[in-house]
Specification:
Layout lengths: L1 H11 L21 H7 L1 H6 L1 H13 L3 H14 L4 H16 L29 H21 L1 H37 L1
């Protein structure tokens, strides 16, 4: 039953192994029109390494990068199998994002905060409720502002310009064929 729950939840959440550890993309232009994909849902944005990189840039400017970093850390945590590694990661997540002394504290409801004692017996879904809160905060707040941001719009324009250039590169052959045909009929 536990395995089914993890499997079901992993289908609802995008995989975090699609981005590099530093959030950078392996290729900045993996496919054209990635902005269209990013604009369709936060889930799609988080599945694309370049999307994560751009969203992090935006959140950094808004002083809320810790939200996406926490979300990504939780995704990574859920994949951890080794008990000792899971304990270490749970403590790291707690100390970095959840403790009152956290360096990058996320804003979660008070009653949702974890007691340090739970870190002794970690399980893959121990941060799920908090992760869902942060996901919803990003989805209904930061994400909509990101889609209207200069950063996103500039990237979208660049993509559109690249696509237009690609179309124009393909166009001369079609134009020259049309011109040749026109010359044949006009002579």
């Amino acid at each position: 039953m536990f395995t089914r729950a993890v499997s079901r939840l992993s289908r609802k959440r995008p995989p975090s192994d699609m981005h590099d550890g530093d959030g950078s993309a392996s290729s900045s232009h993996q496919n054209l029109k990635s902005t269209t994909t990013w604009a369709s849902s936060l889930e799609n944005l988080l599945e694309d390494p370049e999307g994560v990189k751009r969203f992090r840039e935006f959140l950094k400017k808004e002083f809320s990068e810790e939200n996406v970093l926490f979300w990504l850390a939780c995704e990574d945590f859920k994949k951890t199998q080794d008990k000792k590694q899971m304990q270490d990661k749970a403590k790291e997540i707690y100390m970095t994002f959840l403790s009152s002394k956290a360096s990058s504290q996320v804003n979660v409801e008070g009653q949702s905060r974890l007691n340090e004692k739970i870190l002794e017996e970690p399980h893959p879904l121990m941060f799920q409720k908090l992760q869902d809160q942060i996901f919803n905060l990003m989805k209904y707040d930061s994400y909509s502002r990101f889609l209207k941001s200069d950063l996103f719009l500039k990237h979208k324009r660049t993509e559109e310009e690249e696509e237009e250039e690609k179309r124009e590169e393909d166009l001369p052959d079609a134009q020259s064929a049309a011109k040749r045909a026109s010359r044949i009929y006009n002579t």
